[in-house]
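Q: Please design a sequence for this.
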């Protein structure tokens, strides 16, 4: 494992070397499936951050990535993908233990990370500008230039794949990057550093630092040495970061939370919908920004859908992630308590618990897969992001009412429509206030489909070619030919 792990301590990847950080401070990492202490992680402080910032700037100024032949940058990224796959088995086990997710889901994260490097590596030499006609006396063209140093803050729910989702286009565009890993599960992500080291990404071009959000994260985003902020996480943290960005006028990309709704019309294929419900709200124990947090069902099939949803929830296998069950723990005691609190408050506003509703009496932070029925769309449980295995079902009578309820939160990340009526599917998709609409399959799409929110779900897009243009800025070059 080279320098990544030393004496059981996961270290910081600082500009191509592995370091312990400042003053011996560490972060304890727990296994949420067993509540056991898993490992310690070296914490980067101000000194380490300053070294990473200087190294990133120096690498950018030298043109380590930006001046590399674009096709060579693409080949370098393809090598990173190979190294990520090589580390996937080992990395997935660590990620599974520290995050609580299934081993399969952890393996998928490493695979997805590798795919991001292949995808964006493939377009590194296709970031083409335009020629603008100004008549015979001028030549005018645009070029896309990297920002410089990109500061990237990653959440704990998909630390490896989300980090790769932003890092890969950042490298493809020629930026230097500093990543702050999530404090709850930093170890799998630190292994990305190992892949970068083995692929011989230039020293300084990427650093991955471990630290607490309000300390290291806040310092990083407030630094005048960065040229861009890419944040994926909660709305309150995004707002705090935007305040910091306002001070330095730093361009920012915000990928925030959601409270996404699926609309199930009376002609929907119910078997297909129930399969989507399982992945939509129970994958990763519902800790997914684009989870199916609300389900709006046509009144004519409402009782049937609630019954089938409860049946699904009650039949899920539950275990430690290493055993690949259907349902896994949430990340922490704090998260579990919050989910339980919101769920129990829902009863006071008229919601009916059709399945689950409480934590499970076993070791680990397990919330029962929960279905709340008869949920008032205006109530707290229908408006706030829960970020756990809890969905809210509400009946509707007309298409217009369903769209209004779906659009009736401050979020707008994704939405879904389940119907066999093609015209209704298109019509609803256009009217839904969301960055992405799934028709007849929740989570349809992949690494090449643009993703991001409207409203408090944020702005800017990740994934796909579209995201690449978040990592460059346009320069126009206007040349007089008048002699
Ligand atoms: P969070 O906002 O608590 O933390 C996210 C990251 O920000 C962590 O690395 C944390 O250490 C850091 N951080 C905290 N305070 C900071 C500060 N003041 N300055 C800089 N960094 C700081 O979110 P979380 O609990 O880790 O993740 C869950 C949230 O992320 C949910 O709201 C979820 O919807 C959202 N999310 C969004 C997407 C998306 O693509 N839209 C993807 C995954 C998760």
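A: Design:
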């Amino acid at each position: 494992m080279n320098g990544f792990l030393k004496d059981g301590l996961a270290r910081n990847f600082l500009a191509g070397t592995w370091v312990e950080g400042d003053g011996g401070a560490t972060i304890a990492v727990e296994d949420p499936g067993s509540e056991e202490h898993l490992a310690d992680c070296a914490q980067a402080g101000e000194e380490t951050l300053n070294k990473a910032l200087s190294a990133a700037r120096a690498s950018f100024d030298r043109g380590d990535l930006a001046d590399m032949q674009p096709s060579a940058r693409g080949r370098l990224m393809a090598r990173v993908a190979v190294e990520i796959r090589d580390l996937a088995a080992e990395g997935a086990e660590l990620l599974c233990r520290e995050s609580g997710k299934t081993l399969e889901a952890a393996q998928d994260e490493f695979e997805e990370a590798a795919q991001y490097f292949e995808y964006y590596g493939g377009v590194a030499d296709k970031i083409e500008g335009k020629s603008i006609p100004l008549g015979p006396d001028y030549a005018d063209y645009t070029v896309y230039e990297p920002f410089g140093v990109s500061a990237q803050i990653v959440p704990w729910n998909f630390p490896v794949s989300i980090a790769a989702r932003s890092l890969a286009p950042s490298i493809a565009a020629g930026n230097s990057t500093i990543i702050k890993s999530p404090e709850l599960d930093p170890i799998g992500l630190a292994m990305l550093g190992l892949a970068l080291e083995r692929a011989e990404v230039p020293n300084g071009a990427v650093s991955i630092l471990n630290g607490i959000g309000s300390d290291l994260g806040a310092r990083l985003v407030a630094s005048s040495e960065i040229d861009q902020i890419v944040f994926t996480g909660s709305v309150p943290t995004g707002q705090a970061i935007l305040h910091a960005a306002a001070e330095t006028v730093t361009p920012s990309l915000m990928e925030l939370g959601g409270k996404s709704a699926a609309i199930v019309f009376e002609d929907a294929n119910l078997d297909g919908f129930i399969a989507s419900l399982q992945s939509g709200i129970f994958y990763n124990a519902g800790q997914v920004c684009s989870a199916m947090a609300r389900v709006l069902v046509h009144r004519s099939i409402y009782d049937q859908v609630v019954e089938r949803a409860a049946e699904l929830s009650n039949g899920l296998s539950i275990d430690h992630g290493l055993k690949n069950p259907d349902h896994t723990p949430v990340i922490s005691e704090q998260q579990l308590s919050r989910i339980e609190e919101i769920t129990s408050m829902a009863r006071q506003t008229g919601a009916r618990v059709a399945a689950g509703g409480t934590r499970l009496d076993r070791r680990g932070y397990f919330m029962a897969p929960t279905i709340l029925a008869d949920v008032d769309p205006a109530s707290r449980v229908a408006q706030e992001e829960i970020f756990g295995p809890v969905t809210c079902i509400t009946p509707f009578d007309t298409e217009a009412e369903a769209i209004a309820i779906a659009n009736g939160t401050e979020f707008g990340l994704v939405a879904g429509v389940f119907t066999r009526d093609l015209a209704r599917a298109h019509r609803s998709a256009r009217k839904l206030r969301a960055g992405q609409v799934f028709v007849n399959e929740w989570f349809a799409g992949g690494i090449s489909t643009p993703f991001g929110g409207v409203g408090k779900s944020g702005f800017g897009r990740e994934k796909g070619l579209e995201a690449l243009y978040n990592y460059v800025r346009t320069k126009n070059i206007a040349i007089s030919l008048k002699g």
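Q: Thanks. Anything notable?
A: The domain at 5-256 is CATH 3.40.605.10 (Aldehyde Dehydrogenase; Chain A, domain 1). The two ends are 62 Å apart (CA to CA).
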